[in-house]
Amino acid sequence: MDRNQRPRSIIDSLGEELIAILTPVSICMFTVVLLVCILNSDPSSSSSASFSSIATAAYSESDSDSSWDKFVGAFLNSLVFVAAITVATFVLVLLFYLRCVKFLKFYMGFSAFIVLGNLGGEILVLLIDRFRFPIDCITFLILLFNFSVVGVFAVFMSKFSILVTQGYLVWIGVLVAYFFTLLPEWTTWVLLVALALYDIAAVLLPVGPLRLLVEMAISRDEDIPALVYEARPVIRNDSRLVQRRVWRERRSSQNDNDDIEDRTNRNEVVRVVRSAEVDEERVGSSERAEISVPLIDRRPDQVENSETFLEGIGLGSSGAIKLGLGDFIFYSVLVGRAAMYDLMTVYACYLAIIAGLGITLMLLSVYQKALPALPVSIMLGVVFYFLARLLLEVFVVQCSSNLVMF
Amino acid sequence: MEDSRSDDSNLNPIRNRNPNPTPNPLSTIISSAQVWPTIDGPLGLTEEASVDYARRFYKFGFALLPWLWFVNCFYFWPVLRHARAFPQIRNYVVRSAIGFSVFTALLSAWALTFSIGGEQLFGPVYDKLVMYNVADRLGLSGLA
């Protein structure tokens, strides 16, 4: 048939993978905006005053301070938070170095349970309270317990239903992002910018903790146990499972050929099982290993437990795009905070973030190594938020109130 | 971005894991007709691992986890559809489905009775059990 003979162009594969990563990000952002709009609709509800966490440790904003005070306070808050994250990431690097992988996996499962049970329960209680839903506490507890335990299974076990795992990861991102949007306003914006800068430093600098982690994972050929969203690997229609852009690093001559073959054979086991046929064209060198991406982030909590969220984008062992859960969270925080102002800023920030994500994916294909996914999107998002709020809104409101529309 | 092709045959001359390196149309037909036990198809579990997983999910579901039973049925949906293909897995999946239905029937009966009956049926106990009051009492809804 003609279809089988026509070589699959870049556009076919690119579109599918872009959509595979844009859909969950969009769903996460949409859900956070929805939650913000529903739960924050009454202005008398508790806003910034009562939410205390590590991100407001240095300074808690109150309405009576001047702008400069607020800015300095927000800056101090962000410094504290970024310092805490750096420490937590270095602890993670140390644990990974000492090969405490089991402990990390257990901790990951435990933190997922806490997030789903505690934060999820709290959001559900808020929703029930808001809508006066007549559910009794026994049913509620059973449902919450079910939800959290299956979530832990989904996160903990490596071979689980892809759809369920992805759904749970997005839901964890939504929960944490909603709680981040409760931070005071100035703190949120300065924190986002600070985290974008931290992300660049941690991934690209040679001394950055995330880069160390990635290099250790490469050298040991393991996956880092952390919360990372992996898009479903795309399978072609003609039943030839082609290795999708599994970018690999050229191993230097440290390893002899047998060793490499053994390692790549282990990686290749999964593909040998899957691929029914072998393509005529072969990849040239066999001395390559795969990289999986991680960058780590930490979620602040009243209880100070750190969790292994990841930020950053890259490719996983099956060639699917991996995006760290920290990216989901902070994109959604940005959009959620924009939603607290008006929906116009939401649209502007959403488009900015998606554009930033597209740019990051392009850079990923060009540079072929782990990249920070936060900086471009966050910078664009923040710029667009302030432009929309300060300049666009005035213009649009004037236009529509005078019935001049585009 | 370019696709990289699999290099299996190049790597396994010693292991001989792939004894038939040349593309064989018959093997294509056979492999494409193979039914995978999980809903993920070729990305999911193999048949041997599936039995283990199905059994474990079924047993864990007894800890008041009907949602786990449901996920079990969802994950092994092809097992339910192709009735003859996987006898061992089907055993556990069918039992999970039954367990899920029974538990859901009981739970929804209770929940519906509670929400529809309301104060008239329960009296003062209603106020003690309903969630938003419990949350108010425990201070959960103030977003401490």
UniProtKB/TrEMBL annotation, chain A:
Pfam annotation, one family: Presenilin
Its EC number(s): 3.4.23.-
Location of the protein in the cell: Endoplasmic reticulum membrane; Golgi apparatus membrane
Bilayer topology annotation: Multi-pass membrane protein
Chief location bin: endoplasmic reticulum
Leader sequence segment: none
EC class (word): hydrolase
Keywords from the UniProt entry: Endoplasmic reticulum, Golgi apparatus, Hydrolase, Membrane, Notch signaling pathway, Protease, Transmembrane, Transmembrane helix
Function: Probable subunit of the gamma-secretase complex, an endoprotease complex that catalyzes the intramembrane cleavage of integral membrane proteins such as Notch receptors.
Subunit structure: Homodimer.
Written domain comment of the UniProt record: The PAL motif is required for normal active site conformation.
Entry similarity comment: Belongs to the peptidase A22A family.
Name this protein carries in UniProt: Presenilin
From TrEMBL, chain B:
Membrane topology summary: Multi-pass membrane protein
Alphabetical keyword list: Membrane, Notch signaling pathway, Transmembrane, Transmembrane helix
Main location, first listed in the record: membrane
Region ranges (Disordered): 1-24
Database matches in InterPro entries: Gamma_Secretase_Asp_P_PEN2
Compositionally skewed regions (Low complexity) per UniProt: 9-24
Record field: transmembrane: 60-80, 92-112
Pfam families in the record: PEN-2 (PF10251)
Record's subcellular location: Membrane
Domain of life the protein comes from: Eukaryota
Family: Belongs to the PEN-2 family.
Identification of the protein by name: Probable gamma-secretase subunit PEN-2
Source organism per UniProt: Camelina sativa (False flax)
Lineage: Eukaryota, Viridiplantae, Streptophyta, Embryophyta, Tracheophyta
Gene this protein is translated from: LOC104734922
